[in-house]
Amino acid sequence: MKAAWFETFGSAQDALVLGEQPTPVAGPGEVLVRLHATGVNPSDVKKRAGAFPNLLDDGLVIPHSDGAGVIEAVGEGVAPGRVGERVFVYQAQYGRRLGTAAEYVALDEALAPRLPDEASFDVGACVGIPMMTAHRCVFADGDVAGQTVLVTGGAGRVGYYAIQWAAQAGAKVIATASNAADEALCRDMGASEVVNHRSESWGDQVVAANGGDKIDRVVEVEFGVNLPEVLKCVRIGATIATYSSTVVPEPSLPFRDMMFMDLTVRMVIVYAMPEQAKQDAIRDTCHALENGRLQHRIAYSLPFNEMARSHELIEQGGFGGCVVVRIDD
């Protein structure tokens, strides 16, 4: 099968190899998925760059956890009727070497839920990390109806979906964005107010935008950098659900201040979500896709021979939306 892989850590151009690998076989409880698209996420490029030194101990790695395609074969114990089913794939390269940057992937059938016919394969490749992370951040600590939710980086891969999940669940959403185009996008997704997170004392602006009231819940994209401003605008007893702290990877916490605010800080990563949370996210996502209730922002949909560029785009940043590679091209 056609595949991309790495056997050494390094830059995308140096480490990623495009070529042929053996086609996997569906084992007991598994499905063999013929992939049409693979999603590229920050965790994928960090692994390739060497964030996990032991990753290559057992051999080469075909990267990427997210993807979408069609089940072509099933293993023992899997209903034969699943053959031909359109599916999205998540966690394909979590705790395993062989992910979705290939024509085929064999994995536990539970990791290949049905993809509604209304969703394209490109959209299906954005479910696993962007959509499910956003769902967990918004709903992990209960119903948000009637609450005010702040989504920082609202035009980004996760923030874009977090705004939609929260607004559709009955929350008032305030987002942050750094330019007029992203501000308009956040409003289109359901944010009632948008502040610029590059302006001075933007935390105070959030409170002003909320009529002087502080925020109930935060979906946070840059925890370390944003924490001082976030603390200005959250109420006592608020929850900060954060899924990234790239700029300041080891934040220093003002423990006493946060303790006296009785804050909950929730760290979110799809791989470690409770199984019930994953199933809730899958159920709600499929329902939303079937009914056209989610808008999508795919910034780049690249051909297979631009796999290295897909990694470079994620590393460079500076844009909103998902990056997808089309396996068929």
From TrEMBL:
SUPFAM superfamilies: GroES-like (SSF50129), NAD(P)-binding Rossmann-fold domains (SSF51735)
Protein name (record): NADPH:quinone reductase
Top-rank taxon, per record: Bacteria
PANTHER family the record matches: QUINONE OXIDOREDUCTASE
GO molecular-function terms, A-Z: oxidoreductase activity
Enoyl reductase (ER) domain mapped to chain residues: 11-325
Keywords: NADP
InterPro entries reported for this sequence: ADH-like_C, ADH-like_N, ER, GroES-like_sf, NAD(P)-bd_dom_sf, Zinc-ADH_QOR/CCCR
One Pfam short name: ADH_N
